[in-house]
Amino acid sequence: IQNGIFAHVFHQSFSFFFSANDESTAEYKKAYTKVTDGYGLIGIWHFSKDENFLLVVTGVLSVGQISNCDIYRVTAVQFVSLRAPFDTADSRVIDLQRLMSSGMFYFATGSSSDETDFLFFRNRNLHFPLERYGIDSNKWFVRMMCGSVQVRTVYVGNKTVKLAILSRLSCRRVGTRFNVRGVDDDGHVANFVETEQLLSYENCEASFIQVRGSVPLFWEQPGLNVGSHKIKLRAVEATAPAFNRFVTDAFICVFVVLVYRRTRFAVMLWEFFGEECALNWLI
């Protein structure tokens, strides 16, 4: 499964057997009932006290290859109950299955590295049911990200260059635009996206990373009418610790406030950070 092999899932009573080897599969066919075929396992979802589901990737689309790693977009996910048959009409199961099959999730195979940025490790919680028993979940489950991946091959004369753009959506402080704003106590900002431009030529690679997110302050826009929201900012003393965590934990960067005219919000930001930060802010 880790190497992108199309696998078979078999079920006997309340246990499962996974095999990508035709010979071993044949030995178990008589004792196990085939449930589904899959390209990988996402993890185990704890639905309720008595119900758990194994999430199986049943449809993928190959996006391309980067650094000898094959990247796949998840197009279909099946929920396999680890107990008795469940109600397939449950709206929560349907909604999550639709979300997981929306084409926004990706995983890669072939990487020998165990390094994972947990900021973008979308199915991290689904690995816990195995890890709590001391089982290495990475040998069973794929690691997924949410975002977008585009890979293109460019030919310049007799030379071949591979270009890729990867956008990774953070797992922290998620939510819709007007409901989740600014930073939290841990220094995570809303709508944080890391976009990487990757260029690969022969054995050389070059990468350029940009990030964007909500303004790293405690702020909100109460109200429902778009365009009439008034900005509410907390005091400097309350915001400073969270802002410092964001900058320290993430990176050294230049902040760009996307304001095209001297609005009240732009003036408030300028006054908040003061002239000492003027060189780091472009308004």
Automatic annotation (TrEMBL):
<dbReference type="Pfam" id="PF02383">
    <property type="entry name" value="Syja_N"/>
</dbReference>
<feature type="domain" description="SAC">
    <location>
        <begin position="96"/>
        <end position="283"/>
    </location>
</feature>
<dbReference type="GO" id="GO:0004438">
    <property type="term" value="F:phosphatidylinositol-3-phosphate phosphatase activity"/>
</dbReference>
<dbReference type="InterPro" id="IPR002013">
    <property type="entry name" value="SAC_dom"/>
</dbReference>
<protein>
    <recommendedName>
        <fullName>Phosphatidylinositol-3-phosphatase SAC1</fullName>
        <ecNumber>3.1.3.64</ecNumber>
    </recommendedName>
</protein>
<dbReference type="GO" id="GO:0046856">
    <property type="term" value="P:phosphatidylinositol dephosphorylation"/>
</dbReference>
<dbReference type="GO" id="GO:0043812">
    <property type="term" value="F:phosphatidylinositol-4-phosphate phosphatase activity"/>
</dbReference>
<dbReference type="GO" id="GO:0005783">
    <property type="term" value="C:endoplasmic reticulum"/>
</dbReference>
